[in-house]
Design goal:
Blueprint (H helix, E strand, L loop, with lengths): L1 H22 L6 H23 L11 H30 L4 H58 L2 H18 L8 H20 L3 H23 L5
Helix pairs in contact: 1-2, 2-3, 2-4, 3-4, 4-5, 4-6, 5-7, 6-7
Amino acid sequence: MKTILSWVALLAGEAIIIAAFFLWRGNAPTDIFTLNLVMASILYGVMFVDMLVPWINWKDKAQRQVGSMGIRWFITGLYVILALAVMIVGNWKVNLSFTVQLMLHIGLLFLLLLGFVAMFHASDKVVEIHSQESSHRQGVNDMKRAMMQLKDTAIDCPQLMAIYGDRINNLEEGLRYLSPSNNPEASALEDQFVEVINDINIAAPQFSMNQEKIEAALRRAERIYQNRKGVYSN
C-alpha cells in the first residue's frame, strides 16, 4: 500500500509540474522550454526520493544508509540549489543559450553522479566495518554461549554447582565485561576457552568420576579468561 501511495504521489506531482509549465510557458523557445521541463522533473524526482524514501532500514544491521546520510544530504541539496540557479539565472537574468544551459545541466548531473558514487563507497565502508566488528565479537559471543550451556548442564548435575557454582558464576559475570578484540592472540584464547568449557560439559554428567578433570579444566578456563582479559585490539 505504501508503495502504491508513493507512486501516486510521484505521478501526481509530476502531472502538476507539467501542467504548470504549459500554463505559464510564456515566450520560451521550444528547446529551452523542454530543457526546463525535463530538469524540473529531475529535480522533483531527486527531492521526492530524499523526502519519501526511508532513510533508515531497520532490517539492515550494518545501517549502511546512516553512514552515507551526510553525503547524500549534501550532494542532493547542492545539486538542487545549483540546478535551480542555472534555470533562474539562465532564463531570467542572463538569457543563456540552449547549448550553454544544456552543458551546465549535464555538468551538474555528472557531479550528482560522482556524489552518488561517493555515497555508495561510504555505504560499502560501513558494511565492511560492521562485518569486521561482528567477526571480532564472534569469539566473545562463543565464550558466553559456552558458559550458558555449562549452566544448563549444571541443572542436571547439582554437585557441579554445589562445589564450583561461585567460580562458574564469576566466570559468567566476567564475560559480560569482556571487550571484543581484533588481535589473533585473543581469537586463539577464545577458542581455547570454549574448548575447555565444552570438556567440562562432557565430563559433568559423571561428576564423581571426573571431578579432578573438571577441577583442572575449570582452573584452566579461569587462567585463559584472565589472559584473554589482558589482550586488547591492535
